[in-house]
Amino acid sequence: MAHTSDLIASDIEAYLAEHERKDLLRLLTCGSVDDGKSTLIGRLLHDSEMIYEDHLAVLEAESTTVGSAGDQVDLALLMDGLKAEREQGITIDVAYRYFSTARRKFIIADTPGHEQYTRNMVTGASTCQLAVILIDARLGVLAQTRRHSYVASLLGIRNVVVAVNKMDLVGWSEERFDEICADYRIFAKGLAQIDPYFLPMSALLGDNVVEPGDNLTWFDGPALMEHLETVDVDVGVDLERLRLPIQMVVRPDLDFRGFAGTVASGVLRPGAEVVALPSGMRSTVARIVTFDGDLEVAGPGRAVTVTLTDEIDLSRGDLLVDVEQAPTRAHEVDAMLVWMDTEELEPGRQYLLQSANGVRNASVTSIRHRVDVDTLEERAATSLGLNDIGRCSISADRELLFDAYGVNRSTGSFVLVDRLSNGTVGAGMIIGAASSWNRQPDAGLLRQASSISQGERSARFGQQPCTVLLTGLTAAGKSTIATALERRLFDRGRAAIRLDGENVRMGISRDLGFSSQERSENLRRVAEVAQLVNNHGLIAIAALVAPKDEVRARARELVGEDRFVEVFVDTPLEVCRERDVNGMYEAADRGEVPHFPGVSATYDRPTDMDLRVDTSVQAVDECVDAIMDLLAARGVLDA
Q1: Are 498 and 574 in a shared domain?
Q2: Do residues 208 and 201 lie in contact, with contact meaning Cβ atoms separated by under 8 Å?
Q3: Model confidence at 280, in pLDDT bands (50, 70, 90)?
Q4: Which member of 2, 434, 486, 612 has the greatest number of CB atoms within 10 A?
């Protein structure tokens, strides 16, 4: 199957224009040692007539001295460029080859199979859209097959070809092929996103590489080349969330100031309103400039220079994003980390964290577990060694702007760099903002018991302890109800403590902002205080926006189901806006208040509430009456 074009000789400009319009597929080959990865790539290039004649002559000559393919041309030598690789017949470093067919352009990475070079495989796979995982038909699924499959899944590679190679050495057995496919499917059930295409082949002889051949007539699927040409590489591409990491400020003269970068996700158009982060300043895209002229639209993967209608401060490491869907902001993240250094990871040691959002000082604060890639089991660990993969919490000195890696591979990835050697020691994939909800206290701490029993406290106060969480939009009436409820309980001789959201932020949460992660942490702290209050027999009344249903559920779990009462103050948004004497909603409309529930952030209506009240149709006393009735029905208040 030749993929040369007659246009090269007759109309070179037409050929270049045709070549430019082709889409690009980045792929890698991986698998265990000597599964035939380099031979497969060599066969792809040879049978597609993508090897120059003089290069082929050199391969034929070297095949007689250092080759391992008998009397045939050893096509693996095409990829094994290092002297050590040719002498040992293995791949050590990642080798890249560029070629194209009539339908598509390709960048193919040949990654090493030895376990000690897993870090090299991670490097090669980090930008790929498809993985070809080779399996020796004689040996079946091995530990390194599972390792590379897990890494491919971890790195978000959705398109996977499981190529069962060396079928000629098992007599082209369909039964053996089916057996290997069944074994791999059992393992792949535990891997996210992977939906493999199984392909029998012989890279040495060429069957099912470029052409089907004559020995696998029982297999009716497309050969590897046809699959590579037709597979949908746009699956999972995010066209909704605009992310443009700024790589350089372009200022060729006094009249032009542009911001250069590669669109990581979303679609960029002139006239679109954007937000610059971390500053939060808004502007409008004026032009999308490229070497070939201005564009009307730019999508993921396109390198552009953007000019804005306003003079705002942007520099390398900042982000341009769309107004509606901002990335997550946090100082501490939860991430999967591949350790690449011979020196073990030390929690607490300072490293440099490099990402699309710039460089920061960072440290690994804790290791939640290490993944056994052979079994996919999660094992407790206090350190990570070379090629280990673990889930860690990482803290940075400056706020990170990111999306989860599963959503955006560009903004969700980072590397850790040793501050002294300047060597890359780890590669990370962000899961999300780290949460203190799951953090365990120091093992040396012991809970101190009180000499006063709960029965004694209940008898003294005439009540059972509980926490009342009033949740709703800003200006819904939460604090007003909480204050009235506290007064009602006090007048009836009950003991209660009010934890108002604003008061809390003046004290124990003064260090927190209003991002989703910080709101979660604020509610966690309030829930911890409420639990302590309940343990002393008192009633806690908390008035917070608490916009996330998942976080409120965590608060319920922390305090205890039998002690938790969730009251949804369901006042309509338009009424809240009318009552807003501080002008918070108007400021949020202008973009001056980010992450504002009901405007620039979502509010999850409660799904597990115990009571609903609406201050637009109910007086405050009516709302308090309803809460008191509920507390009495729950046995919180003694008769």
Answers
A1: yes
A2: yes
A3: confident
A4: 434
Q: What is the reported pLDDT for 235?
A: 66
Query: Do 155 and 193 belong together in one domain?
Result: yes
The reply to whether 134 and 276 lie within a common domain is no
Contact predicate 210/228, CB 8 Å:
no
CATH of the domain at 250: 2.40.30.10
Average pLDDT, the chain: 85
404 and 467 together in one domain = no
Query: Per DSSP, what are the bridge partners of residue 289?
Result: 305
Q: What residues have CB less than 8 Å from 58, skipping those under 6 apart?
A: none
Amino acid letter, 115: E
What are the two backbone dihedrals, phi and then psi, of residue 309, each rounded to the nearest 5 degrees?
-75, -15
User: Does residue 452 belong to any structural domain of this protein?
Assistant: no
Give the CATH number for residue 464: 3.40.50.300
Same domain for 304 and 336, yes or no, is: no
Q: Count of domains in the chain?
A: 4
pLDDT bucket at 565, cuts 50 / 70 / 90 = very high
Q: Are strands 243-245 and 319-322 parallel, antiparallel or unpaired?
A: antiparallel
The widest CA-to-CA distance across the chain, in whole angstroms, is 99
Note every long-range contact of 342-349, with CB atoms under 8 Å and residues 24 or more positions apart, other chains counting: 342/386, 343/425, 344/383, 344/384, 344/385, 345/383, 345/384, 345/385, 345/388, 345/390, 345/425, 345/426, 346/383, 347/382, 347/383
pTM of the model: 0.66
Residues 486 and 558 in one domain: yes
HEC profile for 404-420? Answer: CCCCCCCCCEEEEECCC
Asked if 131 and 122 count as a contact pair (C-beta separation under 8 A), the reply is no
Whether 73 maps to a domain, the answer reads: yes
Beta strand segments in 373-480, E:
377-379, 389-402, 413-417, 424-433, 466-471
pLDDT of residue 125: 78
Residue 326 has which token pair? Answer: 């901002």
Helices (H) and strands (E) in the chain, counts: 17, 25
The residue with greater pLDDT, 37 or 639, is 37
Q: How many CA atoms lie within 13 A of 551 on its CB side?
A: 24
pLDDT in tens, 192-240: 677 799 999 998 888 999 899 899 999 999 999 999 999 987 766 778 8
Residue 563's domain comprises: 459-633
